[in-house]
Specification:
Blueprint lengths: L1 E4 L2 E4 L26 H5 L19 H6 L7 E2 L2 H5 L2 E2 L7 E3 L2 E3 L1 E13 L3 E7 L4 E7 L3 H8 L7 E11 L2 E11 L4 H24 L37 H10 L2 H4 L5 E2 H8 L3 H13 L3 E3 L5 E4 L4
Parallel strand pairs: 3-7, 9-11
Antiparallel strand pairs: 1-2, 4-5, 5-6, 7-8, 7-10, 8-9, 10-11, 12-14, 13-14
Helix pairs in contact: 6-9, 8-9
Length: 310
């Protein structure tokens, strides 16, 4: 959970007690005079799991998992927010967090109860606000290598996946599980969660019941570009009109059908060769697109995929 002490934000629980002087290069310029009650929105259990929990997962398949990635974007969220998310009754259900329709989420927390099987890996995730059960399908060698990189119980990981509901219990069908190597990422993730909570809640208050924002990432200025990411509250397509030309070139290449179908994603060197641009420029563009929730790293920090449906 987050706690205010002496004007500094501290993340309490587990091995991580305090972060001072962390880099904010990957965090949007998001706060001014807004106030936020962290205890209310992110209260919950500590990082360390106290006992094993039995897991029940939807009888989905790897192909269904791939279809499930077809959504309108990616939202940084806490387990508490996910547990309180409402669900529509449509045939293809959407979850709603702070009035935003979302199926794909990013969660950062501690892994526990890791269970390796021939076709999948099942585990629990505790982010300090609650716990959620996750499943990662293993259909290719790259999937197996990704999960082998996770040491086991007690490891902090970043999980990107598709929300689903089974017998009234929310679960995460993961398609990217990466170990946290820099604990600043935990702090940055919670700051992102606060930012999107405040921004989306503000849209609801200003627009009333008729406001139905469809995009997970609301308009804000980034420190790298200083360009607002334009958001259309009605359209289900992400509006990239505010992006610089090179950012759109990178995104367009990642969104090509042949690249979307590649499980391991596209290497930054391939992007550099195809777009005839330095690797550092490619990384800057990817960092921007990653903050916008449009791309994510797959098997390592050099391979990236576009979030489908954006």
């Amino acid at each position: 959970m987050l706690k205010e002490s002496g004007g500094k934000t501290k993340l309490l629980g587990g091995k991580v007690k305090q972060f001072q002087g962390f880099s904010t290069s990957r965090v949007p310029n998001m706060f001014s005079s807004s106030q936020f009650d962290a205890a209310t929105a992110f209260s919950g259990g500590g990082f360390m799991p106290s006992q094993s929990q039995s897991s029940q997962f939807v009888n989905s398949t790897p192909s269904q998992d791939k279809q499930g990635r077809d959504t309108q974007g990616l939202l940084s969220a806490t387990v508490k927010q996910i547990s309180e998310a409402s669900q529509s009754g449509d045939e293809k259900p959407n979850f709603t967090i702070d009035g935003v329709h979302v199926n794909n989420v990013k969660v950062v927390g501690m892994l526990f109860n890791k269970n390796l099987r021939s076709s999948d890996v099942r585990f629990g995730l505790d982010d300090g606000t609650g716990r959620i059960e996750c499943i990662r399908w293993v259909t290719e060698s790259a999937d197996a290598r990704e999960m082998d990189a996770i040491d086991g119980d007690g490891t902090y990981v970043r999980v990107i996946g598709h929300l689903q509901n089974f017998q009234g219990k929310k679960q995460l069908n993961a398609f990217s599980v990466r170990p946290v190597t820099n604990f600043d990422e935990i702090t940055c993730h919670f700051i992102e969660c606060i930012h999107y909570h405040l921004q989306n809640s503000k849209v609801q208050l200003e627009g009333g019941a008729s406001a139905q924002p469809q995009m997970t990432n609301s308009s804000f200025s980034t420190p790298v570009r200083g360009q607002p990411a334009s958001v259309n509250d009605v359209s289900v397509q992400y509006n990239t009109d505010g992006f610089k030309g090179f950012d759109k070139l990178v995104l367009n290449y990642l969104q090509q059908p042949s690249n979307v179908d590649r499980e391991i994603g596209v290497h930054v060197n391939e992007l550099s060769q195809h777009l005839k641009a330095p690797v550092e420029k490619i990384k800057d563009a990817i960092e921007f697109l990653e903050r916008e929730g449009l791309v994510y790293s797959s098997i390592d920090d050099y391979h990236y995929k576009a979030v489908e449906g954006c």
